Amino acid sequence: MDSNRTEPVTTTISSSSNNERQGYQSITLGSNDSKRYSYLSIFPPKTSVITPGVYDHLLLANVPNSRLGPDELRRRQQASSTTTDASASINYDHDRDPFCLSSEDAKELSTRLQVTELVIKNNADRLSSICYLLLGVHQLFRRKVLERPDVAVKNPTLNSKQMSILLEFFLQIDVDVFYMKTCRFRGAEPCSTMQGLFCNDELPQARYSMAPCRTNDCQYCHSMENQNQNSSRSAAIDFENSSQHRFVNGYTTYLNCPATCTTSNIVYVMTCPCGQYEFTDSTSATLVDALRHHRLVCNQMIHSYLTGSALYHQMMTTSEQYQYALYLATHS
């Protein structure tokens, strides 16, 4: 299977009336993928009434104008025009809630990203709902899986400044592409050829890459050098293609700032050599630390299976054990 080729899905991703002209076609979002749809940024809805099967229009911040339909272009123009902003009717009464954006931070984002304040506030509310949903999943996991309901843990919260940073990322996690064109963190500079949130006439482009740290004790940098000596080995980190990554389903991400294998607080993806499986995770440590942990865990799992650990045999039938052995041999 070629992980770099994905046939496009013939479906519109905006909720459309019968007379609305067809617009951008997503390659990763299916017509029945309502769960993922709820995690994407949208234009402010015209009504608060929720109609089953009908979705609001996606923001499509990383789609160039040339790939949008007439109705999508009109919505983008309206969202970029501050003269039509209905900010006077925006309610900021709950600025002190755990996952809310203050009026000052909303105005700052609106000005810098060149979109209406209504777009900012609407998606801030959407992001806040996602935060509460994930918090509920976290609490359920602790209660059902960890079985520690009696241990009090302080719920994670975000202040307005932190929500502002998170929202800037959220607005640019598009339906088919993540491209953080306005990034100002860790030595990154906003894209000079793009003004504001929307790509407009330009396609996303690779601007940063991951470089080897070149420290003497880094096995991941040296694994790249050793690859020339032993062709049967491949480098653990693909530095040459680190500027962007195309997932198996066709979704593309662009690195948003310069990085090395010792950069901490990152999101990373590991792709199986077969090209059909991927594992995405995040770590507050470095990529080297994360890879070292994964190798340790995988080795322990393989060792436990091969040595007949009672835990693994109690969890699986004979048929499942056979399939698991094949899986470990193929994808470890």
UniProtKB/TrEMBL annotation:
Region of interest: Disordered: 1-26, 66-91
Compositionally biased tracts (Low complexity): 79-89
Designated name of the protein: Uncharacterized protein
